[in-house]
Amino acid sequence: MPRTPAELFGADEAALAAYRIVHETLAAWGGCEERVGRSQLGFRRGRGFAWLWNPRPYLRHPAADVVLSFALDHELASPRVRQTVRTSALDVVHHVDLIDPATDLDPELLGWLHEAYDRAGDPRD
Question: pTM (2 decimals)?
Fold first, then answer.
């Protein structure tokens, strides 16, 4: 099982670039716990709020090399959101393709990520 983002994403430059941008952004907001799993990299505060993952093993024709998923309490109406899944009465997970992380991780998407970050709470509370 991978133990680091580099082990998880290997030579996938888009995924590694997305990780660097998300990691630096979250660090600027106060940081969070990162958990590397078999198929995804999770970000947690009081609970999980965002995930980076490679869609190739799961989708027949993925539009991107990496996907950013994040949990909100409502569904966003945006063409950028590829899919939403209500995972509980309180959570709607949104999946956004990152074709070019440097441009796709723009103020709009980072605003949604910030909303998910805030909503996840502070583990020190």
Answer: 0.92
